[in-house]
Fold this sequence. Notes:
The structure is a single chain. The chain is α+β, with helices and mostly antiparallel strands. The protein has 2 domains: 342 residues, no CATH class; 107 residues, Immunoglobulins (Immunoglobulin-like, Sandwich). The chain contains 15 helices and 16 strands. The longest helix is centred in the middle third of the chain and has 26 residues. It is elongated and about 110 Å long.
Amino acid sequence: MSAEPDKKTPSPSQRIKIHQPDAGKADKFNPSNSIYVRAVEGHWTTLRRRMGWVAMLFFLVLPWLPWADRQAVWFNLGEQKFHIFGLTIWPQDLTLLAAVFMIAAFALFFVTTYLGRVWCGYTCPQTVWTFIFIWVEEKLEGARNKRIKLDQMPWDFNKTWRKTAKHLVWLLIAWVTSMTFVSYFVPTTELYTDFFTLNAGGGVYFWVFFFTLATYGNAGWMREIMCVHMCPYARFQSAMFDRNTYIVGYDAKRGETRGPRSRKADPKAMGLGDCIDCDLCVQVCPTGIDIRNGLQYECINCGACIDACDQTMDRMGYDKGLIRYTTENKLDGKQEKVMRPKLVGYGVVLVAMILGLIYAVSAVSPLRIDVIRDRNQLYRENLDGFIENTFTLKILNKTEQAHEYQLSATGLKDHKWIGPESVTVKGGEVYTLPISIAVDPYYLDRPITDIQILVKSDSGEEPIEVSQETRFFSR
């Protein structure tokens, strides 16, 4: 069959022109391409560094702080106890940890709605460790242009020792990070002693090795790949953003049209905006984006491009703020609204949850009792003709000191307690005690009677009393 006459091969002038990307620029979606981050100084960079060092110092020092006869923060998985200074959280109190995680989530939602991804830019561990690794890279391999040139050079002694030293320092930082993280679960002094004397368990060596490689890989090699491709927060942040969220924004009305010029030239006479197209905002970006292209989910709101642009504006004699923290409404010349329903809603829920957590923590009892009935026999009649029920008491002393507890029951008239009426329970111990309660059937006017098992102690600084409801069967 002959070809249809209306289908003709387009001439070269009719073909759609396809934009070919510049081969000299790194493709941020290609993991094989490196982003060489340029060093920058400025207000936001200084703030980010200080916050990062404070977070690092807090992380490194916290496991070494003593508290009584243990470390202040210790997640003892073996005994299922979480020690946070004077608070001990048992498995029965894990709802408190769930509440902490929920509060952290709502705090993240609230801050993101108001200030964008400042968590990512200033306090996220991935960002903090990445900038530390970049700092090491700059000290050993030089500034951005030198690092690019070094990577393009053939391997020689200079390149070999610089690369080797960099990776050794990276591994050392990753190992210290890993040891510190593991020391939150294994007592710090015991961990370091057993680790270097080869007396630690296989699980300790596995997790230290695992987290060392994870830190080395994430902060040394993957870097922006974690933020761009793997972090789920970058994907669902759009649900929290609106046109009044503070973001790092480029003022296109002021900056366009871009173009180079001398310092003495009048940009208005040349038909140019304030942007001189120096690309410094791209070179300092840890994720390699061009903020001048508008809001992008890869932007972590670190403010590095703001500092770079402000320096350029200073050199040119222009006003700062071409790139700044602003809102989309403000960039469009519209009025921005700080107090809006979504932000207020997150704030109200956050405050309510914090108050609820404070109340729950203050109401945590240092004593817990569980009453378990004898499942084999509801009741029996003993030799004295009394109706007898058997129970097993589990007394949990949540404190770290031994306490003497007095045991009793209420709700039954003239009953007889069969078993110890006073026990001493060590700190952190679960004491199991079988007891029986017997009553003259004359005083039982119904088949099932609600009773209370009481456990109290006056041996501590404050009296403790806990009760548990159960039932007494008589027929």
